[in-house]
């Protein structure tokens, strides 16, 4: 991410320009950046989508343009299955260009491929520039998004003469949650779901608030115990300087554009630094990626090498955060408030208008009350309790979160009563232990990917892939082929 891009992004947001929006974590290059060599020939289309599926009065039959990408390149026309990606919190191109497994599998199983954008993200804004105003933002719910996908699937099946084609849904992270929910909520339309790295339990309030940052810490400890010790030591130095209000020292140590001048600024600095480790852990892929910004191969290893590169812990910490925030080498200083925005998701909301949408979702249905405490993790103690969430959300969006709603709505601890869902998780991924880790029935299957980070299995094959992801993809392909065969019998 370069400095010009950030300025342009900020100007864009301020001017309300909705072009080339950044995804949740980062300014993404989207499809405007480098093109993957065997990039599938997606066509970008828009679907006239119902604005409010659940209230016939409020919006009448009003519609908005929902973006989706489609390719028939691999399809056994009118006969092969439909692989449908349930878009999550970002520009749909980012997911389409970073989910090569789906097109590889489509080629094998002769499937039609569709990537549908989630309402309120990317270019699918129901009220254009006004989408993030109150009350317009109120139609941003998981339920509306699922209904969008259901309607899109039914309509496209009709238009394409594909009524006998089984539909399999795919998604990663929040998109994985949506794919599982689609199978639970619309089994009439969806024969099975691959929910990759989907934290369905923690986001429904059924997790441990300490889990996320503990697992980020484990990744660094797993590289070397000295690494996590160095991170703790560096944060201790930050804390000492902050206590002595040595703001000049903090500014020079971290090359901050503006001198911190209050406890609020120090909190922002800690959040900014902690967020770098979150991204390094989530994106710990064995090759370099350009999904959420530019990441080197094995970023946790690279970060630990930086943390252990000399006696000056603060310089090391600054260099480590530079892997995330200065990947282009073009930042002359770090602007804390433009590179990291504190929000209702302590793992980061990203920048730009997609981050507004995610903040709203984290303030309503999706529970992300994760804390760091410097005991079970290596970070400074930073809480985010349900009470803090409530205070923030009522002030920011005028809403009162409803803890427990996702648990009630999407089956909580009774997921064994579902069917045809794969929950895959990478052991390196800090989201993994917020998801389903053991198989719940012969058709609700958990897959562990030992050396995998955040939904590595959805990415296209790579020479650097560990054996665990190759084997996971085989299991997934087999189960999906079985579901397609079963559904074909039902549809005949
Ligand atoms: C909505 O319904 C009204 C009357 O029922 C009709 O005239 C109008 O064309 C409809 N609009 C859309 C977008 O379908
Ligand atoms: C973290 O805990 C250690 C051990 O209790 C303590 O010495 C240190 O001051 C704490 N660090 C921070 C940043 O609070
Ligand atoms: C930080 O990175 C720069 C540039 O890569 C390097 O020259 C410097 O030695 C590093 N500093 C530390 C303390 O590792
Ligand atoms: C960004 O990286 C470049 C090249 O390594 C370095 O010269 C510069 O100091 C870094 N910026 C910050 C804020 O650390
Ligand atoms: C996956 O790993 C978790 C946590 O390490 C373990 O509890 C679980 O039994 C494993 N599940 C499978 C399906 O191997």
Automatic annotation (TrEMBL):
Signal peptide location: 1-19
Transmembrane segments: none
Gene Ontology CC annotation, any one: cytoplasmic vesicle
UniProt keyword Cell wall biogenesis/degradation present: no
Keyword Zinc carried by entry: no
UniProt-listed InterPro entries: AB_hydrolase_fold, Peptidase_S28, Ser_carbopepase_S28_SKS
GO molecular function: dipeptidyl-peptidase activity; serine-type exopeptidase activity
A biological process term (GO) from this entry: proteolysis
Family from the record: Belongs to the peptidase S28 family.
Record-given protein name: Dipeptidyl-peptidase 7
Record organism: Gadus morhua
């Amino acid at each position: 991410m370069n400095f010009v891009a950030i300025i342009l992004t900020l100007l864009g947001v301020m001017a309300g320009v909705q072009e080339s929006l950044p995804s949740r974590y980062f300014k993404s290059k989207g499809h405007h950046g480098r093109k993957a060599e065997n990039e599938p020939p997606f066509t970008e289309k828009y679907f006239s989508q119902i604005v409010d599926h659940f209230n016939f009065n409020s919006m009448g039959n009003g519609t908005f343009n929902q973006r989706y990408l489609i390719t028939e390149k691999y399809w056994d026309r009118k006969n092969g299955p439909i692989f449908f990606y349930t878009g999550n919190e970002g520009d749909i191109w980012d997911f389409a260009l970073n989910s090569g497994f789906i097109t590889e599998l489509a080629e094998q199983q002769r499937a039609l491929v569709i990537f549908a954008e989630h309402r309120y993200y990317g270019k699918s804004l129901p009220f254009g520039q006004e989408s993030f105003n109150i009350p317009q933002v109120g139609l941003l719910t998981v339920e509306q998004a699922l209904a969008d996908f259901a309607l899109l699937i039914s309509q496209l099946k009709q238009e394409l003469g594909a009524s006998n084609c089984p539909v399999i849904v795919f998604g990663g992270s929040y998109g994985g949650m949506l794919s599982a929910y689609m199978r639970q909520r619309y089994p009439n339309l969806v024969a099975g779901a691959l929910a990759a790295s989907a934290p369905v339990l923690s986001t429904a309030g059924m997790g441990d608030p300490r889990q996320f940052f503990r697992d980020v810490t484990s990744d660094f400890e797993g590289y070397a115990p000295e690494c996590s010790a160095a991170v703790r030591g560096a944060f201790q130095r930050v804390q000492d300087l902050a206590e002595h209000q040595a703001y000049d020292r903090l500014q020079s140590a971290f090359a901050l554009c503006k001198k911190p001048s209050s406890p609020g600024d120090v909190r922002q600095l800690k959040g900014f630094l902690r967020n770098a480790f979150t991204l390094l852990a989530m994106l710990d892929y064995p090759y370099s990626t350009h999904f959420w910004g530019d990441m080197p191969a094995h970023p946790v290893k690279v970060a630990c090498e930086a943390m252990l590169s000399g006696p000056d812990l603060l310089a090391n910490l600054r260099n480590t955060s530079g892997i995330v925030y200065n990947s282009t080498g073009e930042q002359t200083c770090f602007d804390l408030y433009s590179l990291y925005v504190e929000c209702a998701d302590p793992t980061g909301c990203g920048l730009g208008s997609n981050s507004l949408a995610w903040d709203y979702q984290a303030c309503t249905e999706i529970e992300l009350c994760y804390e760091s405490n410097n005991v079970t993790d290596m970070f400074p103690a930073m809480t985010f309790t349900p009470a803090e969430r409530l205070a923030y959300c009522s002030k920011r969006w005028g809403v009162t979160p409803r803890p427990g709603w996702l648990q009630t709505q999407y089956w909580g601890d009774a997921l064994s009563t579902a069917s045809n869902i794969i929950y895959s998780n990478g052991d390196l991924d800090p989201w993994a232990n917020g998801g389903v880790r053991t198989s719940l029935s012969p058709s609700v299957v958990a897959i562990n990917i030992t050396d995998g980070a955040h939904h590595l299995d959805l990415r296209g094959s790579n020479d650097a892939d560990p054996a665990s992801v190759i084997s996971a993809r085989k299991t997934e392909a087999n189960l999906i082929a079985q579901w397609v065969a079963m559904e074909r019998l039902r549809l005949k």
